[in-house]
């Protein structure tokens, strides 16, 4: 049996090839476009974050003469304020982060409940976002110092002045730092949680209400599971910032409440030892990475949950 073929004119084949060329170029551009959009951010992070971080890690294992050694780490471990700074940093993180998340969640739920005057509350609660760490510390120093506002009120009622900010009252000093830091940074967590609450469909809560679920049950079994991605981001960000806490502590307590970031500053600025300061910074980075890994594992977001929100 003979087969017959139809000859395709060369002009048609050329037109088809010419028509495919722009489609191939468009597909190639779509493939490259995400990388081009990410390139400025990647370059910025590499130049201003990755490279300084690698330099800090290298400095943590170098002597003042530039030789690689474990001497900076050994000096850090033998520092009289090393263990107190580790203890205080961990305690402040354990107290501040959970309390701020709970407080921010309550604030976010109130703001998204549609109550009258919630807009004014949002502006009032967001005011600390415009205040720097050091300014916040100075504000609370003016409140709790010996001649501050609290003692002025106590004097008006015939109560003698109370010394809050002193090494002789470490518990009061600790909790005043907690109050000041909670006032300063809770708004950051609140904004993240509000953004998360706004993307949760109201249908889920309304369905739970139809089936007889109480407000607490809807919060526990509907809102919090769907809010897990925002909680994850808020916890990671707030914990990292808590490990780096410095200005508020310096303004309120000075050296009476040593923290890791404060010791890094002291060794760099007062003792002029870059290696030990870098070792403290490396320890802060390790703590931050470990806690980030824990949050990512404990608050793991499944793909199904991500698609539901």
Structure description:
The chain has one domain: MetI-like fold. The chain is built from 14 helices and no strands. It has helices at 10-59, 71-77, 82-111, 118-126, 133-144, 149-156, 170-198, 202-210, 215-226, 228-243, 247-253, 260-269, 274-298, 303-308. Helix 1 (10-59) crosses helix 13 (274-298), helix 2 (71-77) packs across helix 13 (274-298) and helix 3 (82-111) packs antiparallel against helix 10. It starts with 9 loop residues before the first helix and ends with a helix. The relative contact order is 0.11. The mean pLDDT is 84.
Describe the structure using short key phrases.
MetI-like fold; 309 residues; 0% strand; mainly alpha
Q: Which spans have pLDDT < 50 for at least 5 consecutive residues?
A: none
Name the helix and strand elements from N-terminus to C-terminus, one letter apiece. HHHHHHHHHHHHHH
User: How big is the Rg?
Assistant: 28 Å
Report the count of strand segments. 0
SSE diagram, text form:
Blueprint: H1 10-59, H2 71-77, H3 82-111, H4 118-126, H5 133-144, H6 149-156, H7 170-198, H8 202-210, H9 215-226, H10 228-243, H11 247-253, H12 260-269, H13 274-298, H14 303-308
Helix pairs in contact: 1-13, 2-13, 3-7, 3-10, 5-7, 5-11, 7-10, 7-11, 8-9, 10-13, 12-13
Quick overview:
Helix content is 74%, strand content 0%.
